[in-house]
Model the fold of this input.
Amino acid sequence: MTVSKKLKPSSDLVLIVDDEPDILEEMSDWLKLLGIPNCVSQSVPDAISCLNRNKSIRLVISDIRMPSMDGYDLIRHCSGLGGQRTPIDFIVITGHLTQQDRTRIAGFGVQRVLAKPADLDELEAMVLEALAGTVGSAAEAEG
Done:
């Protein structure tokens, strides 16, 4: 992993959602090395609760396939928030990425998608792009 660029301290948070604790820990530690504050959730219901409590979350990095509710449910929830909060951008990371998944994800307006295991340099570029406010906000899309 190469950490090429640290961000200035920000009040914007990144929420990482994955049912695999090792992935959550690795991604959280990696974002901290980049200087990006973050929080983690192991389930979609917990992530929704976190989003409702914390209006400074601007970016969600989420797996798609999780037990009970999945990443699509989370994207759908955030898309329905409309003007209730700052738009939330998404990066989707999944271990089982099919063309059908890509099409469905794009239907929600999410343009940042990676297959697991994610290339951290590519993920870093996506995170920095999302936090800079360019391209692909799911909360503004209709799904």
Strands lie at 13-17, 38-41, 57-62, 89-94, 113-115. The mean pLDDT is 81. The helical segments are 21-33, 44-53, 71-79, 99-107, 120-131. The two ends are 34 Å apart (CA to CA).
